[in-house]
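Let us practice reading a record.
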Amino acid sequence: MKNNFLRIMSLTVFLIFLALYYAANVGIIDYQARNKTRLTEEQIQLFEEDVKNNVEIDLKKYLNDKEQQYENKISKSTLNLSNSIGKTVQSILDFFYEKMEDAMKERK
């Protein structure tokens, strides 16, 4: 039973590592950062052109805080389920580490 649990936990951690490593190497994270930078550079150029042309400056025109919202009932319920699972896993891990700590103290 202990062996299977350790194998599953080790495999899970290893798979998470591989997924994050793959995302970093493929450039998904860099692509998102570059995309935001590109938008910022375009807004700076627009601002500079308006300054040169003596156009009235309104900062709201240059700030692009329009992120799409994808929330719906399914995503909200999935988020709630995910948070519940996270809290449950956290309490299980806390219990597990507490028992491990007690076992280590008994060995001394």
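A brief commentary: The chain has a mean pLDDT of 83.
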